[in-house]
Design brief:
By secondary structure, the protein is mostly helical. It has 15 helices and 2 strands. Strand 1 and strand 2 form a beta hairpin.
């Protein structure tokens, strides 16, 4: 159990819903299309999870090499809120950098093996998607590009977990992403863009919260590039509400069934999260030690409060829950409409 807990902490496996839910959504949307295969779809989701976990560890690997924690620790000493529970297992010697590298490699080897199996059934289309996602995952923080340090981090996450993940799983599940007769299957592309925006917001909300720390670390996130609170909060509002508006627009023009409007159940969560982030940015007191139950599950609140990072964890996991709720609602509606 200790090893399992350590693995969860190292890989940040508690963030997997932001990977699993879009994958399951893509698989459900593939129902009744092409050469449908539950097995290949589930294998694709598992491979995506492995790459996600490897990406989390790669981020720690490079952050440790770049010594980003020293800046955060110094800011804490000055009384400035900064998230410091990072790569503790490297700091305390639980793992060496080399051991972490081997663990990352093990996750990727299994993911590649699964990719080979899917390739045997679906061909080069999945290889192209996987290659793009793999490139972006490594160079998100990897040398020499370090894309996350130049304002591209959020958009990379959106591409990988939106169109990359969902189109990859969809193609693995049914092989109907593109056909010479009908061209690109746009419904899955548009839905993946909406989900990608929400996954981008998962990263963006903590980039916004950590804007000053990242700036001091010479890490130019999108939030740092925007500069002001007003611009940062405006961009966050777009990320929170645009996916809902996309669904409303599609229903209004008759593109999808009206039942998909149930995604608007996420609206109270979106409003709460934007307001709480507004208060944080302007130094207005806001209770994050007792988050409302309807925000969804907020894991490890006791640890978050103990380390004084509840301000960070609650907003990050609330955004994760919004994404999961959005995906789950569409999944449920699709299944019900298929049955009836």
């Amino acid at each position: 159990m200790k090893k399992l807990k350590l693995w969860v902490d190292i890989t940040r496996a508690y963030a997997l819903p932001q990977c699993i839910m879009p994958g399951v959504l893509a698989m459900i949307l593939a129902m009744g299309m092409g050469d449908f295969s539950w097995g290949l779809g589930l294998l694709a989701i598992f491979a995506c999870c492995l790459v996600h976990l490897a990406g989390n560890m790669l981020d720690d690997y490079f952050d440790y090499k770049y010594d980003l924690l020293s800046v955060r620790t110094e800011m804490r000493k000055q009384g400035i809120l900064s998230f410091t529970p990072k790569y503790f297992y490297l700091k305390d010697g639980t793992l060496t950098l080399a051991q972490l590298g081997w663990i990352i490699a093990a996750h990727l080897v299994v993911a590649i093996a699964i990719g080979v199996v899917i390739f045997m059934y679906r061909g080069w289309s999945v290889v192209v998607i996987a290659a793009v996602v793999g490139f972006l995952t490594y160079f998100y923080s990897g040398w020499p590009f370090k894309l996350a340090f130049h304002g591209f981090g959020e958009i990379i996450i959106g591409i990988c977990f939106g169109p990359g993940l969902m189109c990859g799983v969809f193609e693995s599940t049914c092989g109907a992403l593109y056909s010479p007769e009908n061209g690109l299957y746009w419904p899955i592309v548009l839905m993946s863009i909406a989900v990608g925006i929400y996954v981008t917001a998962i990263l963006y909300v903590h980039s916004l919260i950590e804007r000053d720390t990242d700036k001091a670390s010479n890490k130019n996130t999108f939030a740092v590039l925007l500069g002001t609170n007003r611009a940062g909060l405006a961009a966050f509002a777009v990320m929170l509400f645009l996916p809902l508006l996309l669904v409303v627009g599609c229903v209004a023009v008759g593109y999808i069934h009206w039942a998909y409007l149930f995604v608007l159940l996420q609206l109270p969560r979106c409003i709460w999260l934007w307001r709480s982030t507004y208060c944080f940015m302007y130094g207005i007191p806001f209770d994050t030690k007792n988050p409302p139950k309807w925000l969804g599950m907020i894991e490890r609140m006791k640890d978050a409060i103990e380390y004084d990072v509840d301000y960070y964890i609650v907003r990050w996991m609330s955004m994760r829950n919004i994404n999961a709720g959005f995906c789950f609602t569409i999944i449920l509606v699709k299944i019900i409409l298929t049955i009836i």
